[in-house]
Amino acid sequence: MTANAFSVPSPRPLYMALIEARIRLEHDCPYTVFTKTMPRVVVNHWCSRETDVLEFSSPPKTDQAELSHAMARLEKSLRARVVRRVQPSQDLCLVVQKHDYSSMRQNVNAVIEANSCMEVQPTVYKSGYEWYRILAFNQPDLLRLFGALSKKADLNVVSRETIADSSVRDTLTVSIRSLIGSLTDKQVSSLLAAISSGYYDTPGRVTTQELSQRLGSARTTFETHLRKAEGKVLRALLPYVELRAGSGYGVSTERQP
Q1: DSSP E strand boundaries for the chain
Q2: Which terminus of the chain is more solvent-facing, meaning fewer CB atoms within 10 Å of its CB: N or C?
Q3: Prediction pTM value
């Protein structure tokens, strides 16, 4: 009898398909009640076990007194205790609060976790709806989650995508501020005009001369704003590109045409 006659065979590796889904929910929740009362206000919500960070973004000419009263009602309905309140500008308010969700029987985050899925925060509340970005590690888990949420809320699956050969690290959010926060208004408008007009299409559908005429500026001035915008965005992306290159998959060192 050989020495390895009773050795346990190595288990086969379990291959997972990472699935990203974006869903919209409508149900009886303090946040949806708030955004039905203030439909033009957008709430971004980051949540931990005991603490919430809420970002209230309101358009110009919002009745600030009405907004304050609605926020106070939200705080009361959540049984929350505000520990910090910061208002960087008239249209933006940040709130840090201690919460108690034990009384909320329809806690969506608990349902997501119970079905072995993960939310990529923030949750977004707008016009009486909740918007979630979900990561699932196989199709049955995601379908069970949809079934569980459908029992508690009106569920709309906005999008669903299987991400092949990817990792959770590569799928999580990148800070928008880190990408475009340093752009000036002219650089933003130049970059937006170039993208939306097909400048970066292959072949390109518009020239910088045509774009500069549409924006009412000299071609050289437009090109300067555009190149500065491109440079800032690409430099901000560099750490993420290096991270992907270091992962060793899907990266070629050869120049592409």
Answers
A1: 18-26, 42-47, 51-57, 81-89, 92-98, 118-119, 123-126, 129-136, 154-163
A2: C
A3: 0.65
